[in-house]
Amino acid sequence: MEKPDVNVPEGPAPEDLVIEDVTVGDGAQAQAGDTVEVHYVGVDFETGEEFDSSWDRKQSIEFPLDRLIDGWKEGIPGMRAGGRRRLICPPEKAYGPAGGGHPLSGRTLVFVIDLIAVAE
Question: Which parts of the sequence belong to the PPIase FKBP-type domain (predicted)?
Fold first, then answer.
């Protein structure tokens, strides 16, 4: 797979988590609490500016789902390895409300995530 272009939808930011499969994989299915290996790109919904990308570091990342932002905890389970999914995470599913101490607090974030592998 190659680094995806992240398309930010027109109009106001959604108030709830949006989960969209771009490509459905045929590998192992991620479950809540699993450790996953992913590639991802993160973009600010309002500005369309990329703020993070594992692709740019040329290295996938592996981590337990229970250590991630709520949008990922809720948006990755059910995904299959080999798949690509877009998540639109409102602030309460990302880094919390504005003034929360994280540079992305108060922001709606768009992620495109490629699930490489699931480790149980």
Answer: 33-119
Asked if residues 19 and 85 have their Cβ atoms less than 8 Å apart, the reply is yes
Provide the token pair at 60. Answer: 């996938």
Rounded to whole angstroms, the Cα distance separating 12 from 23 reads 25
Q: Which two tokens stand for residue 106?
A: 């108060």
Burial (0-12, 13-18, 19+ Cβ within 10 Å), 97: exposed
pLDDT tens for residues 19-45? 999 999 999 999 999 999 999 999 999
Q: Which domains does the chain have, with CATH numbers?
A: 18-119 (3.10.50.40)
Q: Positive or negative CA dihedral for 88, 91, 95, 98?
A: positive
Q: How far apart are CA 22 and CA 25, in angstroms?
A: 10
H-helix or E-strand containing 75?
helix 70-75
**How far is residue 112's CA from residue 21's CA, in Å, rounded to a whole number?**
10
